[in-house]
Amino acid sequence: MVMVNGVAGVIATISSSPFNYARNRQYSFKASSDNRYPTVWSSLQELQALWSVEKRLVYTRLRIGWGSLRVGLGMAFGDYFFRYFESSI
To answer: Rounded to whole angstroms, how far apart are CA atoms 62 and 3?
Structure first.
């Protein structure tokens, strides 16, 4: 069960990363007259354009790698220990 939860955690982390990227672009926006506020849609379109040019850049921007595995394992073991201690009470 830990393996299934770990894989589900990694998939959830990777699928939410484009939206986290878009949110981070909005948080880091500095207002000036020559640039426009980045919307979620424009950020996702930028990632799609990068994907067609070079996939490695997208992985770098989304921070997909060992961190995704770490988050997935953390979710899996957190669920395992929660259920273990819940059943022992």
So the answer is: 24
User: How does pLDDT run across 42-62, given as a tens digit for each residue?
Assistant: 999 998 898 888 888 888 888
Sorted by where each begins, the domain ranges of the chain are 2-29+38-88
CA distance 39 to 13: 21
Please list, in sequence order, all residues whose beta carbon lies within 8 angstroms of the beta carbon of residue 17, skipping any fewer than 6 positions away. 62, 63, 64, 68
Here the tokens at position 76 are: 């899996």
What CA–CA distance (Å, rounded) separates 23 from 15? 14
What's the whole-model pTM score?
A: 0.75
Those residues with Cβ within 8 angstroms of residue 37's Cβ, 6 or more apart along the chain or in another chain: 26, 29, 31
List the structure tokens of 24.
């981070």
